[in-house]
Amino acid sequence: MPPPRRRPGRRVLFLLLALLLPSPPPTRAPAPPGPAAALLQALGLPDVHRGAPTPRPVPPVMWRLFRHRDPQEARVGPRRTPQGTTLRPCHVEELGVAGNIVRHIPDRGAPTRPPEPARAAGQCPEWTVVFDLAAVEPAERPSRARLELRFAAAEAPFGWELSITQAAEGAGAGAGAGAGPVLLRQAVPTLRTPVRAELLGAAWPRNASAPRSLRLALALLPRAPAGCAHLAEASLLLVTLDPRLCHPLARPRREAEPAVGGSPGGACRTRRLYVSFREVGWHRWVIAPRGFLANYCQGQCALPAALSGPGGTAPLNHAVLRALMHAAAPGAGGLPCCVPARLSPISVLFFDNSDNVVLRHYEDMVVDECGCR
């Protein structure tokens, strides 16, 4: 009777994840040795998360994007994409732009913003908002930078006009905080819904990397005499494309679960491996999923079972030739290898070290099928 199978320990899971996730870029500073450091770098985190993240609600837009991209969510919940629709790799369909990393960045200037001054004759106050973009790596290319503002105010009879300028360092919330030319000016018909403004191409060029920090001075002026608005909340939705994580030829995940199981000494097929973020101690800052079915390939590629057995794809002709040669003359060449034949992606929603909510998409993370190659 074979011995009972043990669950992989935490170090084994770290090693498996470090091998599965993309390698860190060579330009990054060397990290401490160990699989945990390699995995943290692959997730875009320079070091271990500094304790539990500051509690804050996950914005609804981030939940929608995660559920739209995550195959497991798509199977257990109501279908969010039409039947037959294929999600393109490295593309955020809901926002209509290329990208594989989405960050929701809150305004860092709000906690230190002084009370709004009393309204002067014919003037409304300005606000300075600050967004920390230091976590964005130089290799990432922004494809959308959407500023979202929520105001509290009585409706103006003829609407409003939003003006955005570059804020000077140390600028406060009072009037005159802006410096330099106006970056963006747009009409705002109503304040009942969030006010959105696209900053890419206005705050920095479209073909350039994101700045380390973004300081903006905002002014919202009524087109007719009316009460001034009050800025309740400001955030930035930043979408970037990291080409190191982009695999244009990645295949979509099948709706059916992969065939898993079988004894290690059997034919080549997919074996079940579930990675729990709680087991590796990351459940406090990984928001979703709680884990994922990574799977792996194991088994023999000898004649005849591996070439016709269930649970895998048809082998390549070269694999058949190698198996035949090995059967006729075992010393002439080695057997084909049992390797992944179909892979699918996962999406991870987590807090980074700046307590930003980040959605990161990883191609080729789940083994759906194995074959002899």
List the topology elements.
Blueprint: H1 10-20, H2 35-42, H3 60-69, H4 71-76, E1 91-92, E2 97-98, E3 101-106, E4 126-132, E5 141-152, E6 160-167, E7 178-188, E8 195-198, E9 213-222, E10 230-241, E11 269-271, E12 274-276, E13 286-288, E14 291-293, E15 296-298, H5 305-308, H6 317-328, E16 338-351, E17 357-372
Antiparallel strand pairs: 1-2, 3-10, 3-17, 4-9, 5-8, 5-10, 6-7, 6-9, 11-15, 12-14, 13-16, 16-17
Helix pairs in contact: 1-2
Written description of the protein model:
The chain has 373 residues and is α+β, with helices and mostly antiparallel strands. The protein has six helices and 17 strands. The chain has helices at residues 10-20, 35-42, 60-69, 71-76, 305-308, 317-328; strands at 91-92, 97-98, 101-106, 126-132, 141-152, 160-167, 178-188, 195-198, 213-222, 230-241, 269-271, 274-276, 286-288, 291-293, 296-298, 338-351, 357-372. It has a seven-stranded antiparallel β-sheet with strand order 8-5-10-3-17-16-13, with helices on one face. It has a four-stranded antiparallel β-sheet with strand order 4-9-6-7, with no helix packed on it. A two-stranded antiparallel sheet has the order 1-2. The two termini are 32 Å apart. Residues 22-33, 73-85 and 252-257 have low confidence and may be disordered.
